[in-house]
Amino acid sequence: MKALARLDLTDAATFPSRRVEEWKYSDLKRFLREAPELSGTAVVGAPGPFYDLGGDAIVFANGRPVGVKDYIASGDQTLRLRFISDATGTGHTASARIVARPGARLLLLETHEGKGSAYVAHNKVEIDVASDAEVTRIVLTDEPDDAISVAEAEVKLEAGGRYRQIIVATGAKLQRLETRLRHEAEGADARVDGIYLLGGSRHADLTSVIDHVGPNGTTSQLIKGVVRDEARGVFQGKILVQKGADDTDARMGHHGLITSERGEIDVKPELIIYADEVQCAHGATVGTLDESALFYMQQRGISADEARALLTQAFLIEVVDRIEHEGAREVVREWLTARL
Amino acid sequence: MLKINNLHVSVADKPILKGLTLDVPAGEVHAVMGPNGAGKSTLGYSLSGRPGYEVTDGSASWNGIDLLDIEPAERAAAGLFLSFQYPIEIPGVPAMTFIRTALNAQKRARGEDEVSAPAFLKLVKAASQSLKMDFDMLKRPLNVGFSGGEKKRMEILQMALLEPSLLILDETDSGLDIDALRIVADGVNAMRSPERSMLVITHYQRLLDYIKPDRVHVLAGGRIVASGGPELAHELEAEGYDKFLPEAA
C-alpha cells in the first residue's frame, strides 16, 4: 500500500484508487482518470436552506470565494458556509478556515449546493475549536447524480472544547465527506454524527478519523443510512486512542437499511487503542425494512410508498433529534422529510 | 355484503384454503371457528392482501368491489379492517401520528376532506376514554413495549376511529384477561350497525359469549364444513372439532 498524498485536483497522480486502503469503497480514480479543467465563474443563486436562520455567510462559487474565506468567532454566532457548484464537466477546489476563540459558541451551517452536471468539487474546511469553545457543524448536501464531490474537514479541539457535527449526505456519482478530528488536549467532547439517504445509483461515503491525543476526552458517533435502488452507502469510522489519552470514552454506532435488491452498504469500524483505562465501544447493523410492519400500515390504509417513507423517517430521525439547536433541527427535519 | 366464493389460497406453494365459500350479509356478525392449522388466519390475511398469500382460484368481493384485484391500502379505504392476532410494533411512529396518517390516507383515497389535527385530537380523546386507555400511551411509538392487552385495545381504538364497514377480528380474545375481554367486546359491539359486516375468527367459544354472532361456520381443512346458528359454537365447545377433521370426514 502506497502512502496517501493529499488530494489535488490539478494533479491526477494524487487521485486515490481502491488500492489505497482508505479509499477502497470509493474508487476516485475509476471515475476520474485525468485532472479536470478548471471551472469558470458561477452565479450565486437561491439563498440556500439555512437562510432563515440568519447570521454571517461565507460563499464559494465554483471554488472562488465571494468575499471572505476565513472566519473568527468570538461570541455567540451563526455562520452559513456555502459551497456552490454550477459547472459542467469541470473541476474546482475551495478552502475555508474557521476559528472559534476561547468561550465562543458557533453554529456552522454548511451546504454543498450543486447545479450543472459531471463537475468535480473539492471543498475543504479547517476548524479550530479553542478551549471551552463550542462549534456545532451541520452539513447538508444536494448535488447532481453525475457529480464527483470530495469534502474534507480538519477539526482541532483544544482543552474543554465542544464539537457537534451532523452530516446529511444525499450522494452523487461519487461523494465523499471526510472528517478528521483531533482531541489535542484534555477534556474535549465531540459528537460526530451522520445520515445518508441514497437512491438511484448514488454513492455517499462518510469517513471519519477521530484521534484522541489529550486525556479524558469523549467521542460519540451515531450514523444511520438508508439506501434504495442501486445506491451504495459507505461508512468508515476510525477512532484512535493514543498513549496517554487515558480515561477516553469513545462510542461509535452505525445502523443501515437497504430497501432494494441491489442496494449496498459497506461499513468499516475501527478502534485502535494504545492508552490504558479507556471506555470504547462500537456497534454496526445493516438490515431491511420490516415487511410485516409495511403490511400492517397498508392494512390501515397507508399506501406502500407512504408506509416506506414513514418507516424510513422514523429510522433516521433519531440522529436529527440529537441536534441541540431547535431552529437548525427543524430545518434539517423538513429538508430530510422532503427527500424521503 | 361480503361474498367469498371457492377461495383457494397457497402459502409458499402449500395449499391452505381449498375452496372456501362464505357470505356475510350487511349488518350481520358471523363467526368462523376451527382447529389450529385449519386456515383461519390465512382467511383474514388473504382478504386483506398480505404478500405471500397467493390466491390461486376463486373470488372475494365487498359491496360489489373485487377485493382481490386491489392493493391492501385500497382494500382498507374500501372499508376492510383486519384486527391482527399479534399487532405489529412500529418503532419511531407515535400511535396518534400513525392513526391520523391512516385515517387521512383513507379519506384522500375516497375523495373526502382530511381531518385537521385539533379535530382529530378531540376524536382520539373521546375514543380512548371509552376504551379506558391512558391517553399518554397514544404519544408513544405504536405498540412498542405494549402488553398483549394494550395492543388489542389499540386495535379496537383504531377500528373506532377508522370506522371500517367490514371488520375481520383474528383471534381478538387471545392474550386478554376477562376484564380486558369485556372492554374490547364492548368496543366491538358498539360498532355493530345495519351497514357493517363482521367476521369473528376464533378458536374458542369464549369470545362469542361477549360478541354474539348471527351465524357460526366451522373451518376445517381449508373449507367451511358446517354452518349453523349461535348454538353451533356451544356444540363445538362441548364436543371439540374432531368430527370435522379431514380424517373423520
From TrEMBL, chain A:
InterPro entries, per database record: Fe-S_cluster_assembly_SufBD (IPR055346), SUF_FeS_clus_asmbl_SufBD_core (IPR000825), SUF_FeS_clus_asmbl_SufBD_sf (IPR037284), SUF_FeS_clus_asmbl_SufD (IPR011542)
Q: Where is the SUF system FeS cluster assembly SufBD core domain?
A: 84-315
Pfam family of the protein (one): SUFBD_core
Transmembrane regions listed in the UniProt entry: none
Query: Please, which domain of life does this record's source organism belong to?
Result: Bacteria
Protein name as annotated:
Fe-S cluster assembly protein SufD
Q: Which organism is it from?
A: Brevundimonas guildfordensis
Query: What lineage is this protein's organism placed in?
Result: Bacteria, Pseudomonadati, Pseudomonadota, Alphaproteobacteria, Caulobacterales
UniProtKB/TrEMBL annotation, chain B:
What's the short name of a Pfam family annotated to this entry?
A: ABC_tran
Residue span, ABC transporter domain: 2-246
**Which UniProt key words apply to this protein?**
ATP-binding, Nucleotide-binding
Highest taxon in the source lineage: Bacteria
The entry assigns this protein to a family as follows: Belongs to the ABC transporter superfamily. Ycf16 family.
Q: What is this protein called?
A: Fe-S cluster assembly ATPase SufC
Species for this entry: Brevundimonas guildfordensis
